[in-house]
Amino acid sequence: MSKLFKQTKWAGFAGIAASLFLILAACGQATPPLATITILPNPSFLAVNTSQQLTATGTDTSGNTVAVSPMWSVEAGGGITEAGGGTIDSTGLFTAGPVAGTFPNAVRATIGTVSGYATIVVIAA
Fold first, then answer.
1. I need a labelling partner for 72 at 20 to 30 A (CA). Which of 3, 39, 63, 80 fits?
2. Are 74 and 99 spatial neighbours (Cβ–Cβ below 8 Å)?
3. Would you call the peptide bond into 41 cis, given omega within 30 degrees of 0 as the criterion?
4. What residues of the chain score a pLDDT lower than 70?
5. Cis status, amide bond into 43, omega within 30 of 0
6. Contact 56, 90 (CB under 8 A)
């Protein structure tokens, strides 16, 4: 191979590699991991046997707000039970039961290992 061919060959390769690097740098930026989940309203006030839509918002480790679709659950540790305090569906719709009371950290929204909690206050009618 001639010296000119080798230089041209490597110059072309270097140009392709540089272009590929720029493309990957622009498109391949990793999304910061989820740091927190906030549930609103918190606390949630509702009358016995009524429903209220709760929403969850995430914040990543850079402090940016991110949309989330968490798994919703009612926590027995919050003093709430399905028969008493209420239930929650997969969309975050909480339905109070027939028992009035304050249930701290009773609702949980979870994605992976990150969870957010909300207090429920059920008011007697």
1. 63
2. no
3. yes
4. 1-29, 77-84
5. yes
6. no
pLDDT value at position 38?
98
pTM above 0.85, yes or no: no
Q: Which amino acid is at 19?
A: S
- CA dihedral (122, 123, 124, 125) positive or negative: negative
Rounded-to-integer distance, Cα 63 and Cα 122, Å? 33
The full length of the chain comes to: 125
**pLDDT tens per residue across span 80-93:** 555 447 899 999 99
Taken in order 68, 116, 114, 112, the sign of the CA dihedral is negative
Q: Which residues contact 54 (CB under 8 A, 6 or more apart)?
A: 39, 40, 41, 44, 72, 88, 92, 93, 94, 107, 109, 118
Cβ neighbourhood burial of 84 (10 Å; 0-12, 13-18, 19+) = middle
Amino acid identity at 10: W
